[in-house]
Amino acid sequence: MENIKKIIASFLQDYKNEDYFIGAILTGSYATGNNDINSDIDIFIITKDSTPWRERGNRLIDGYMVEYFINPLRQVVKEFDEGFATGNIATTLMFAGSVILRDTDGIVTGLVERAKSDLDKPVAPASGFKWNSNCYNVWHSFTQLDEKYIKGADIDFTYNIFLTNVISAHFSNRGIPGLSMHKIERILTDEQYRKKYNNARLPEREFCEKLVKCFDEKDYHKKYLCAKELYDYYMAQNSNFDINNYSFRSSI
How many Å separate Cα 10 from the centre of its chain? Predict the structure, then answer.
């Protein structure tokens, strides 16, 4: 970890004395303790509201990839405020699970404390156009999977698309913030890992169990049956959706 601290210090050297600099946090796997050999060092820099730009990039330092985010304070607050309306609370999660690296006047501490308290806030469940779109995407992706299976073709690609769509739709319909798709399997099956991500909210047990079955199954035919079971469950939970009479008009 001493080597990581030196890399962080080296990276911040270019920013900490700038007039626009407010502070910085370490976020991601090195902050939560879930890092492995492939992990980036994620650093989020907060700048003054007068900063007219934001930046995201990568920098290789001593063999480690630093992925960095630079945002003015007003942008961070905006993303906090809007996240629970849209279901995208990525910025809130970054701050809630972070380690403070620099804090010139307590602002960063305030952001981290707010992020942690905001985790219990409700997220508006999908309705109207969003709900219809969610259901349509699940129906359409399963139809494509079904077609591949009937033809005896490879289903891996369409299978994964279906799982991605049904996860996104079900979380959205339940008013649960979305999770990183590459982390969701471990979050569902590893309680200690989930706790490090601030006890990520999950939908009902029946959905989660069916989803884990889909993750675990390797047999071609059984994979399809697992997907069909999950699809039927989703549609039963959203029985008002009728693809045969699907229509939704929205403003432009």
Answer: 29
**For residue 194, what pLDDT is reported?**
79
Residues of the chain with pLDDT under 50: none
Q: How far apart are the first and last CA of the chain?
A: 52
Tokens for 56, please give them. 């995201």
DSSP letter assigned to residue 219: S
How many Å apart are CA 210 and CA 227, to the nearest integer?
A: 8
* Contact criterion met (CB below 8 Å) for 170 and 234: yes
Q: What does the pLDDT read at residue 197?
A: 67
Gap between the Cα atoms of 176 and 151, Å rounded: 36
What Å distances lie between residue 11 and 155, 223, 247, 251, CA to CA? 44, 46, 52, 47
Cβ–Cβ < 8 Å for 15, 69:
no
Helices (H) and strands (E) in the chain, counts: 11, 5
Q: Look at the block and give the residue holding tokens 């999770």.
A: 179
Return the SS3 of 195. helix
DSSP assignment of 150-170 equals: HTT---HHHHHHHHHHHHHHH
Q: What is the pLDDT of residue 199?
A: 56
